[in-house]
Every structure is written in C-alpha cells, then in structure tokens.
Amino acid sequence: MPNRWKEKVKKIVGKENFIDEKLELICYSRDMSVHQGMPNALVFCTTTDQISKLLRVANKSKVPVTVRGSGTSVTGAIIPIGGGLVLDLTRMDKMKKVRKEDGYVVVEPGVICQHLNSSLSPTHFFPPDPGSSNVCTIGGMVATNASGTRAVKYGTTRDWVMGLEVVLASGRVIRTGSYTPKTSSGYDLTRLFANSEGTLGIMTEITLKIVPVPEYIAFAKAAFAKLEDAGKTVADLFGSSIGLSACEILDTVSINVVNKAMKLGLPDVEGMLFIEVDGREPAVREEMSAIENICQSNNGIDIAWSDNPKQRQALWAARGGLVPSLSRFKKGYRLIPIAEDFGVPVSKVPEAIRGAQKISKKYDMLVATFGHAGDGNVHTTFILDVRNKDEWKKAEKMAGELVDLAMSLGGTLTAEHGLGIAKSAFADRELSSSLDVMREIKKGLDPNSILNPGKLSLDKKKVKILDHFAFSHVAGKKLKGFSEELDDEILVCVQCGFCRTGCPTFESTTLESKNARGRILLAQGLLEETIKPSMELADKMYSCSVCAGCTTTCPCSIKAPEIILACRRRLAQAGCMPQSITTMLENIEKEGNPFGSPRRERTDLFPKKYQKISAKPAEVLLFLGCLPSYVDMEIVPATFKIMQAADVDFTVLGEDEDCCGYVHYLAGSADFMKRVKSNMKKFKELRPRMIVTPCAGCYRALKTLYPKEFMVFHISEYVKGLLEEGKLKLANLVTKKVVYHDPCDLGRHMNVYDEPREVLRSIPGLVLTEFEKNRSSAVCCGGGGGLMAYDREMSLDISKRRLAEVLEEDMDVVVSACAACKDTLRKGLRAIPKEKRGTLTVADITELIAEAL
C-alpha cells in the first residue's frame, strides 16, 4: 500500500487508529480457521462518515478492505488474503436505540451479542445464540447469518434483522428495511446484505427485532443405544405438535470427548439428544411429558428433564463443553474446523452422522460429529496434530468426501458459519448457475472488488481447501520449541478470541497484540522461528499483567501466563528486556529491592524494638516484602500489631531481607534461582517452621517456586487460623462498608478466595460486599506482571476501570490482600476526579484487622 494512501487514511481516522506495525498485523492475520493472510494495515473506525471516506480512498486506489469484528469466524471469512486494510469495528459498540414497546433495537456492528442480551434482560432478548455469543459481534453474526441452538424455533440471524445502514464500496451510504414489523417496499436489500460476509458493503448500523423472554423453560436429555433411534426420535418430535426451542445431537465420539474432559458420566451410547422447550408453563410441562413418551417409544434410556435453571444449565454444560473439550481429548491434538458445518434435511441427520463416521474410520482420523438436529445442522470437527503433515493430507481428502456426503443427501455446504475461504472451493457444487448471478451483483456493487476479496468464490479463482494455510511453518517441520508441554499449549489455541472477555489489557486497548490470542499467535511465531526476539515483541509480552484472567474465559483452558513468561525468558536471553524492567532487576542486585531504596530504609516502618535487633530463630518468619516495606505506610505496622496481639513467636530478617525474586520470575530473568538460593540460605539459618507474608506476590513465589522446606501462609490464611484457635480477638467496632478485591496472585493463581472474606466477616461492624466480577472472574487491578513499571498509563486505566464498578455504590473502602493491588488501586483512585471518587479509600486487609484489635 503506497505511503500516500496511508497518509490519506491516517487523516480520516487519526494516526492513533492506523497501525502498520508487522507484529500487530500478524495478530490480525488469523481466525479460527486453518487460513492466514497478512494485511498491510489495521484501521479502527468509530463513525459511518469515517468508513464512507475510507472506502472512497480505498476504492479509488483499489486497496482491499476486510471488515473484522471479534474474529470468531471458523471459515477464514475475515482473513485479508488480498492484503490491504483490515477494518476493525470493535470500537463501534454503541446501543443507539432500544424500543421494547415496538420490539426492536438499533445497534452498531461492534456490539457483543451477550452484551445486547444483558442490556435487554430481564424482560426481552435477541434469540440467535451462537456458541461464541459471549464474544461475537452483531455485525459478524449478520454478515454470516449465524444462528445457534435455538434456530429450530427462532431461526437464523437474518430472520431478526429489520434494517441496515450500509456503506457501499464507493463510499455511498444507504439505508435498507424499516422499523415496522413488516414492509413490502421494493427489493429486500436487508436480506441481501445479511449473509454477504462483507463482500457487498459495510454495515454501520443494524436494526434488530427483539421479543419478550419466555415465561418458562424446560430441558430434557435422552440417550440411545442406536443412532438411528435418536434420529427416529427427532423425526417423531417434528411430526408432533411440540414446539421445540432446541434439539441437539451428539455422536459416540462427542460423548466420549465430553466424558473424558468434563467427567459428566454420560452413558456409553451411539447418540444423545438434548432438547429444550420454552413458553407458558402448563403447555411446556405437557410437551415435556410428550417428549418423554416419544423418547421411550424409540428405545430411549437415561431420560430426564428439569425446569430448575441451575439443573438446566448443568445439563447444557455437557453440550457447551463439547467444542473446547475437543482440543483436550488427546495430548498434542486440537480441533480443526474445515468442512464442519453442513446442513441436511432433518430426517437425514442420522444418515449424515453415519456417513461422517464411515469417512472417519476410512482415514483412521478422529472426527466428532454433533449439531443442531432440530434444523439439520451437522458439525463434523476434526481432531488432529497440526504438526503431522500426513494428517493434513488426510483431512483435505476427508473434507471433500464430507461435501460429497452433504450434497448426496440434498444438503447445504454451510448451515450457519458461511463459506469464507474454507468452503469456497466447493461453492459451485451447491450454488451452480446462481453463483454467476452472485458475481454479477458483486460486480455491480463493488466493481473494483475491494470488499473482502477471495471469499464466496466470487472472483472465479480456483481455490483449494488448504490454500492460505496457517500451519505451513509447523506441518512436517522440526521445531525448536520452548518445551513439549508449552509447545502443545501454544498449538492447542484455536484462536477463538474468548480470552477477550477476561483480558484487562485488551479491554484497555482493544488491540489483539494486547490480548492472549494475539500473544499466543506471536509465541507461535517464536516457536516456528518466523518471528525473532525484538523490542517490538517485548512490548507485546511485557504489557501483559499475567493476571490469568484469560484462563477463566478460555474454553480450552490454555495456560497463557506460562506461555507469556516463556516468551519473556526467550526475550531476556536475547537481550530484549525493557529498560524499566532491567532497572528494577539492577536495583534488586544493588539494594535488595526493585525501587532502588537504600537497604537501611527497609526497617523504617518497623516498631522500634525490631528495627536494629538481629534475626533470631523462631517458630514463624515474618517475610514482609519490598512494596510493604518501602512504598506502603500502613501494611508493615498493621502486620506487626497483629503478630504481637496474638503473642506469636516470630522473627524478621530486618535489613537482611531481600526481594523474594518474584520480579525476576515475572521478568524472565535467568537470575531468579540465584535469588532463591540466597534467600533459602538465610531462611535455613533461622529454622522457622513456617513463613508468613502479607505480600501476595511473595506468597505465590515462596509457596510455589521455592523448595518445599517450610510451610508458607499468606497473612489472611494465618489470621484465619489464629481466630479459629482463639489466639486473636477482634473486639473493636469497624463500622465500614467495604468491597473486597481479589488479588490475581492470591486468587486465580493460588485459589485463596475464602480466607480473606472469612477474616473480614469476623470484624465487628464491618459490612462486606462484592464486586460484580469477583473470585475467579475478578478483574486485575492493573499492576500485575510488572505492568505498572512498564506501562503506567495502561495500568492506571485498568485500575480506574476496576474502581468504576463501585464508584456509584455507597462504599467506604476497597480492600485487598495484596500490597501491589492496594498501591495500584490507590493510584487509580487518585486519577479519578474528586467529585466522582467521593470519600472512597483503598486499604489492605491487615489495616482493617489491626483497626479491630
């Protein structure tokens, strides 16, 4: 892309919304498919006017433009195989109009499906429910005509689109459809643009139908020894008057996968049905009874139904857990979507599944077959080792035979995911002469073919299913990896993007390189040696807070923090460590703490009797940590007060206490073990039975990274024990309303959730409340992983976002059990205008305990 066009685009969107850095672009070269394509630049737009102007420039210079939402496509539909611009609409996420009384909403394309339904709850909802609804955008859903489990009753996304605002390739803006329940005015352009996969125009505003939430929902499951009996049941259900809202089927491979991964104890059978009905309670109950009878008449076993929401959710967990389980079924293997989405007449579903199983057996390849039996949508998902070239060859042949199977049964190539790149090779098999009409429409609306080129077989180019192959540097190659375990973790990532919902640095930036998915893709580049260590790569890896928030939203449970730390070690070895991190390590080497404060100041906050005495052997070694000793003013005095009040036999290292080395560990420094050995020597001289620390980072390091020669307790755990033994009494009234913030190092990393809460509840007069996102779902404070040192601005932004959850509440104190969390949240609070933060303060748990003594 010539620089003159880049400059024009920058003027339209602003320099901050135009990115052409290679590593960032790599993060936008993939989706869940097996395809890859590099753009020349990434652009964020936030208005229709910007997009209109952008397309005028792109059209005049014939620069391809590929629209992207959350990147959850499984067909390569958003891969910029023609280069050019990736237009990311993530930031166009406004709910512009909500008219429940008229049954519609108007949204921008970047609105997340789940966010839309949350905003409509508890009265209304938008029915289409793809498996990625917690992260996929409405724009992406409309572009691919997504559906989900409820399609049997509620149809597909385009059935719920009332109107669109669309920018054509020329930059012209048009509106389609109406706000009325029905219209017969002219061609139905709304349905034309829906399901066009971004090849005809760019949607900038979408009007959707919404409906009231059903009064009553019930769910049934039934197992069948023979797959044909499950199919007969589906046919009988549809031949009845029962109004199903969902009807899912799992084959024997899928059942085995779920059982192994989720330990649900499903029966060893050839088929299972999961069925849902919604509506008025008396009618639903009557239909559930009829469903039981139909299942029993077709030799169904293990038949059960429930209207209990929790039980219903537990039953759906088996179906919901299937897809991620596929990537954990066999070590080194992962799910691969290729020909995974065909549709057949409902009566042909068992035949389709049997056919898929025969193909799987023929090639000795594992294929899980499942899907929405109620609408004939069959998913055939391959499970293979992406490093095995022979398996890829088999997969390519199998995909062709699955297409043959679908066509022979009067089916369709794709029931809900679209054609993209993956199925373009077979498009003419189904579309025949109508494909020529599609090409004429494309030429009329986009004569320069700038909009998402290379998709839907619109350009007449001969394509193969493994064209633009994303694993060309992996398949059949000998890799110089990190370790067998970490290599598997990197390659098992399916690029689904679910990590977006748990990543604080992504929420702050909306950049893929600042999200686990992007970082893992860059780690794969290191693994393949297509990316070399550099300061640019260091920026992506050291801007991670290593909070593990992504691990709670990742359906494959990928150990992203371990991958990030491995990359940091590789970068450190290559001399690519950021200066701010290097400075901290140099300070530790010189003064024993990352701040460079004189060693003699470590005891300034100690009670006078402990300031100058030498360390002596004792039952408990109190390891206070660097941040409490040098930065915070309250934690050290409070901790001493607690230990003295309980009459604990404890000692301290005083000025001889050094950094535990957790900073080295997080930085990827090879000197971490040197720090461990030095500290262990000091610990052994004091012969403590246990080590107690108020620092969550020190706690994690000492308990999990050091030799297991001493018991290690966080102060909250230790105080809980003192209270239970009656050695500590909290008598003073502390009349405060507090909200507890879970530290990542203490919570997600160490699973310490209950102890701090139990201690806080023991304080007289104190009222404990929770953040909406708490425990394993808690949002990082923004200070973890060295982020405050590396990128203070981002750290403070994350901190302010966390605090925003409670600013409108009548709260006195945000309390944590981590000195770094307290420090970061306190800085974030100071960055919020006084009129908004009010009298809210931030404290450590030790301060509230000490106040109660």
From TrEMBL:
The keyword Cytoplasm does not apply. One of its GO terms (biological process) is lactate catabolic process. It holds the Pfam family FAD-oxidase_C. Its cofactor is FAD. Residues 35-213 form the FAD-binding PCMH-type domain. GO terms for molecular function: D-lactate dehydrogenase (cytochrome) activity; D-lactate dehydrogenase (NAD+) activity; FAD binding; iron-sulfur cluster binding; metal ion binding. Residues 482-514 form the 4Fe-4S ferredoxin-type domain. SUPFAM superfamilies: alpha-helical ferredoxin (SSF46548), FAD-binding/transporter-associated domain-like (SSF56176), FAD-linked oxidases, C-terminal domain (SSF55103). Its EC number is 1.1.2.4. Keywords: FAD, Flavoprotein, Iron, Iron-sulfur, Metal-binding, Oxidoreductase, Transit peptide. Belongs to the FAD-binding oxidoreductase/transferase type 4 family. This is D-lactate dehydrogenase (cytochrome).
